[in-house]
Amino acid sequence: MLSFDDRDGLIWFDGALVPWQEARLHVMTHSLHAGGAVFEGIRAYDGKIFRAHDHIARLQRSAEILGYRLPNAALELVKACEAVIWANELGDAYLRPIAWRGSESVTVAASNATIHVAIAAWDWPTPPDRGESAAGMRLALSCWRRPRADTAPTASKCSGLYMIGTLARHAANAQGFDDALLLDLDGHVAETTAANIVMVTGGTLVSPRADCFLDSITKRHVFELARQGGLAVEERTVSLKELCAADEVFVVGTAVEIRPVIELAGPELQARWSVGPCTRGLVAAFHASVRGKDPVQAQGCLVEAE
Description:
Blueprint: E1 10-13, E2 16-19, H1 30-34, E3 38-39, E4 42-45, E5 48-49, H2 52-65, H3 74-87, E6 93-101, E7 115-122, E8 137-146, H4 162-174, E9 179-184, E10 189-192, E11 196-201, E12 204-208, H5 217-228, E13 232-236, H6 240-244, E14 248-253, E15 257-266, E16 269-272, H7 277-290, E17 295-298, E18 301-304
Parallel strand pairs: 8-9, 8-15, 12-13
Antiparallel strand pairs: 1-2, 1-7, 3-6, 4-5, 4-6, 6-7, 9-10, 11-12, 11-14, 14-15, 15-16, 17-18
Helix pairs in contact: 2-3
Organism: Hoeflea olei
InterPro entries: Aminotrans_IV, Aminotransferase-like, B_amino_transI, BCAT-like_C, BCAT-like_N, Class-IV_PLP-Dep_Aminotrnsfr
Cofactor: pyridoxal 5'-phosphate
């Protein structure tokens, strides 16, 4: 695998496009020690960035939750994302805007640290390109829990929170599963390590309320498509028992787009689902919408227009 510090291309770094291999920071950077970086994952399709303004707005909110403001205006960062796509001659791409506190302090307090911002982009094939859109995922129930909002900045896409996902996914992968499902501290369904989870039950899409994890921008888009296709959507507390009894289950997020779940396993727990018509229809509708095509309603779910 090609290391991410040894690639060709250009990265937008504090206002300038610099060669990929020169976009570096010091080992004494505060956010490396204290986990205070914030970031976004964004996809571009055919050179057009998907919901760029929403992602940059969330990046700004994430920084504010962590106690600092970005030095760049939202429109400047959107234009910087576009410049990175153009400079690297990318069509379909994954973008990673990230902001962090600099190296002026390594103590807990770093109110005077310089705030840096960088944006990288690279060719990361979409799930359809990798043959994963229709392939169901197998999830392991994790022993790790998502923290409450009064114990961690859960509404922020903060680098420090991702250690939980790393630990949970490593454990799941070691058992032969694709990913892990995490519960909240009360034992209700939260999300997977890096994507929101949605169940389909009785023709309604139900997702756990994002009160201890990051709300997915891609999920919001999928819910809009579902409403256009005549499907009901809900966000509420979801029990593990309800999830296991659902008709269909899928995960949604920037990296995975929409991917069906076919199995959940844990101590004294085994649930299986088929890849159902609602999930297949939403996958088709999503791919149509990001490619500039019109999704249309068909038999209660969305399919790609011919």
